[in-house]
Structures are given as structure tokens and as C-alpha cells.
Amino acid sequence: MDLVIRVFLPASVGIIMLSLGLGLSIKDFTRIARWPKSFFVGLACQTIMIPVISFGVVKAFGITGSIAVGVMLLAACPGGNTSNLFTKFARGDVALSISMTSVSSLLSVITVPVVLKWSEYYFVENTAVFLDLRGIALRAFLLSVLPISIGIFLRHVATPFADRAGAVLTKVSIILLLMIVTGAVVGNWTSFIENLQLLGGSLTVLFFLLIALSFLVPLALGCDRQHAKTISIETGVQNGALGITVATLLTHNAAGFNDYALASAIYGVLVYFAICPVLVWFRSIKEI
Predict the structure, then answer these.
(1) Rounded alpha-carbon distances, angstroms, from residue 275 to 164, 219, 252, 270
(2) pLDDT tens for residues 142-160?
(3) What CA–CA distance (Å, rounded) separates 214 from 73?
(4) At what angle do helices 94-123 and 36-44 cross, to 10 degrees?
(5) Sequence-distant (≥ 6) Cβ neighbours of residue 180 within 8 angstroms
(6) How confident is residue 4, by pLDDT bands cut at 50, 70 and 90?
(7) How confident is the prediction for the chain on average, in pLDDT?
(8) Which of 180, 193, 210, 196 lies closest to 75 in space, CA to CA?
(9) pLDDT class for 228, splitting at 50, 70, 90?
(10) Is pLDDT at 254 greater than 50 in this prediction?
(11) What one-character-per-residue DSSP string does 220-280 give?
């Protein structure tokens, strides 16, 4: 199990983030200037709305301790790499989706340490469970920023290779994502069963709140429907694999997964079922 925790998990997340980077180019960052309002509204939804709404749900459902920290860790994670596929199906703006995913993933080196450390102080008595902010930031960098940067660099210097490798790694990353989520559930089965009703209900409420608010807020601020759909999906779909890996690595639990990873594991399963009716509805929405 120690080999799985120390080698397989970080390597798998690295591959997932590398596959994201291989599909990115400098244009994905510079074209933000085409729709600055939609981009920054979306970024605010991801970096501010998600933690605030998550904290409200945690308090409303009476979730405490390490489980609560796990929910907040999930809230600090960037958008999931499958959000781009969901956006395409929903007839959203895939270019905006890709830009938001890439920037939020790079920002995880800041969001994950800050939210995680604050949550530890607020929800648990032992505030020495996690490393200091620099230690958390370093791991977030190695798990997300570094592989994404490598992928962008490879695409810049060897585009044909990046296209071929990206196509393969995208499929591999989906399999790895399922393996990570399944492993977290099975490896923490007793706690999963004990907390399934509480976390299942609270995370379902959280998902639909995020989807609804991050669709309505952009519309109220003047974004078009296509961008509002995109922002909604980017906000509702979180990178559960990163949450599981960060939680497991930082608690030094060589015996297996732990309660800090539980919310990310349940959300990683839940989102694929809960988003289906949302995508069908979004697909039916006509642009003005």
C-alpha cells in the first residue's frame, strides 16, 4: 500500500495533468483577452464561490473534523479535466473551458495550501496534521503546475508528438481517474459506508448549488448563455483525483486512504451521475 500511496497516486495525477498540458498552447492563455468579463467571472466562481458555498454546506449539514476538511480540500481543487468534454456536449464555449481549466490548475499551487491550512485550523484540534504552507504548495506544484508546464512546452516544441501523445494520455487519464476514485472508496470502505448518507446528501446539494449559482451569476453580470453554461460546468466539476492524492500524501498514511480523501472520492463518483440531466438541459438551451 505504501508503494501505491507514494508512487502510483502522484504518478497517476501527474499523467492526468500532463495530458491536460499536452492539449494546451500559449493561445489558450492569450485569448482570455477576447472575453475578459466571462473569464474573470468564471475565475471568481472557482476561487471564491466554491469555497464559500462549500463552507456553508458543511456548516448547514453539521459536518465536522477531518470530513469537513476533506470537503474544503475538494473546494480548493481546480476544475476537472473532463469538464472540457462536458462543455462540448452542452454546447458551451470549449475554448473558454480549456482556458479556465488551465488557469485554475496553475492557481492550485495557491488555492490548495491556503484553503487546506485554514480548514485544518478551523475544523480540527490537531493543527499539525498537514505540513506547512510551503510544503503543501510544493506538492501542489509538483502534482499540477509542473506536469502541465511540461505538456505545454512539449506541445510548443513538438506539436505532432504532443497531438499523438495527448490522444493516448487523455484515454489513459480517464482510466487512472476511475482507478484513483475507486481505490479511495474501497481503501476507506468502512468510513465510506458510515458517511455515505451524510456526504452523499451534502455533496449533492453542493453540486447543484454550484451549478445553479455559477450559471445565474454570470447571466446577471452580462455574460452570454454559452459562457454561463461553460462557467457553470467548470465550477461544478472539480478535480477529485488531485484532492484524493493531496489528502493521502500529506497525512503520511502509509496504511491507505483516509477520511480527508473521502469527499473527493464520493464527489468523483457523484458528479458523473448528477451532471447528466444538467448537460441535457444545457444542450437544449438556445442562444439569444
Answers:
(1) 29, 20, 33, 8
(2) 777 888 888 888 888 888 8
(3) 19
(4) 20
(5) 9, 12, 13, 240, 241, 244, 245, 268
(6) low
(7) 84
(8) 210
(9) very high
(10) no
(11) HTT--HHHHHHHHHHHH-B-HHHHHHHHHHHTT-TT---GGGHHHHHHHHHHHHHHHHHHH
CA dist 24 and 152 (Å) reads 6
Inter-axis angle of helices 94-123 and 9-22, nearest 10: 150
pLDDT tens digits along 182-199: 777 777 777 778 878 888
One-letter identity of residue 72? M
Helix runs in the chain, H state only: 2-3, 9-22, 27-30, 36-44, 50-60, 65-76, 83-89, 94-123, 133-140, 146-157, 159-187, 189-220, 225-236, 240-250, 262-284
**Confidence (pLDDT) at 174:** 78
- Calculate helix-pair angle for 262-284, 225-236, nearest 10 degrees: 160
Q: 3-class SS at 98?
A: helix
Q: What are phi and psi of 238, to 5 degrees?
A: -105, 155
Assigned C-alpha cell, 28: 489558450
